[in-house]
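Record type: monomer structure entry
Structure origin: computed from sequence
Chain ID: A
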Amino acid sequence: MPPKAFTNGTVVTMVPGEGPAVALVIDGDRVVAAGGPEVVPADADVVDLDGATVAPGFIDAHNHLSIAALHPVWNDVHGVSERDVLLDAIRAQAAAEPETAWVRCQGIDATVVGMPVTCRDLDDAGVDRPVIVADYTLHQCVVNSVGLEALGIGRTTVDPAGGEIRRRADGSATGLLIERAWSVAHAVSMRDYADPDRWAEHIAARARVLLASGLTCIHDAACPPDAEAVYRAMARERERQCARPTGRGRHSPASTPRARHSTRVR
């Protein structure tokens, strides 16, 4: 396969002291040259950029890949601004996953809902299992009364270090769990989704979405131990695939992200 050259554009090289190039040449999965028209091989497959800009892949130093990978599994309530719509989403999620211990929705934005969502609101969904609605920030959540009971949270429960159990004036929990308190609820609600094979498939699919958006490396800023194990297994599989002899040497498979604490999406 001949090398591919991108020409007639602006190539940002990030080389200190050098301006942008006008041509970029890749061979397989490697950049082999950047510069003027003279770097383009005679046998290259030329792509005319028509003035477009080519930039290096972006690095996201604070991503939640292992959690975001599962977002398609849960009902997305981001942008929901009405209480009844939120309750309908909870009921739909409960119906879609009747066997899970927890019913989970994700993406709520309290500033959009326009009211403080509490356990009592979630109770009105009529679901007899613990319910957790994760905030879009992944720093807090709301759980229903059954969820509070499952977590062992009552009037006398002490806030965890680095977290808060939001309370009413009478000391009862409102259902809003912040930071470390949310982390506990999050971990418990994730147990039904920790199957390594399925989780790896979801991570790979999400990684391809990030790659299509220009992100080539991410750091998972909230990586639970189960996800670490999945990343390690994915890394071992990638290394095994890379060790296979090919006609062009050892190239990283484009469909498999390099998965460790810092996950390189290749």
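Annotation 1: The chain is about 30% helix and 25% strand.
Annotation 2: The CA atoms of residues 108 and 135 lie 5 Å apart.
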